[in-house]
Amino acid sequence: MSDEGVPAEARAEVALAVRDALAEHGYERLTTAKIAEAYPKSESGLYYYYDAKDEMIAAFLEFAVGRFGEELDAIEADGPEARLRAACERMFLSPGEEGADLHVAVMELLSHAPHNETLRDPLVALQSAKLDVLAETVREGVEDGTFRPVDPDATAAFLLAAGDGSTGICVALGMDVGGALRTGWASYVDGILAD
Question: Mind telling me which PANTHER family this protein's record contains (predicted)?
Fold first, then answer.
């Protein structure tokens, strides 16, 4: 069944159940039964709207696109510099931090995207939403003179790639490089800000 016919409340409930199950079990060990354990209603309710696990994951990813933008909009930061730093803090997580397990699960999904059409489009949408928010923040800072003139799209792409890379190195593998990564991106952002 198409996600378009799913009521918003049901879509959100399924998305949150997938989020919780993904964070706990990862993609490889995720089953519809494990999603059902996190779902507040009956397992049959899941199948009423979605036929397969990957359709449920795609619903979660589509939900996450909107949620990511809302979360960044809700950051209480005054001006583009503070917003950019706060956005970067959300991307550079250490093991045990809230959201770290979910970042690893999304990284797992990214590794399956080349071979899974159901996951590819919503993953592209999620990463594009992150790029758009970062680029718009940098663009605003360049336009109002907060940042020196830089290419907002290239800067956003670099920051997103660095954030995704930090998930793999620091969170997934548990390597003790989180402090160095944070120092590195902070120096990069300082370089953007320097006039």
Answer: HTH-TYPE TRANSCRIPTIONAL REGULATOR BETI (PTHR30055:SF234), HTH-TYPE TRANSCRIPTIONAL REGULATOR RUTR (PTHR30055)
Q: What are phi and psi of 146, to 5 degrees?
A: -65, -40
pLDDT at 73 exceeding the cut of 50: yes
CA-closest candidate to residue 167, choices 181, 155, 185: 181
User: What are the start-end ranges of the H helices in 5-99?
Assistant: 8-25, 32-38, 43-49, 53-73, 80-91
User: Do 116 and 192 contact (CB within 8 A), yes or no?
Assistant: no
The total domain count for the chain is: 1
Q: Tell me, what's the pLDDT at 145?
A: 94
Amino acid at 170: C
Q: Give the per-residue pLDDT at 72.
A: 66
- Mean of pLDDT values over 32-54: 85
The domain of 132 spans: 3-193
Dihedral of alpha carbons 107, 134, 90, 125, sign: negative
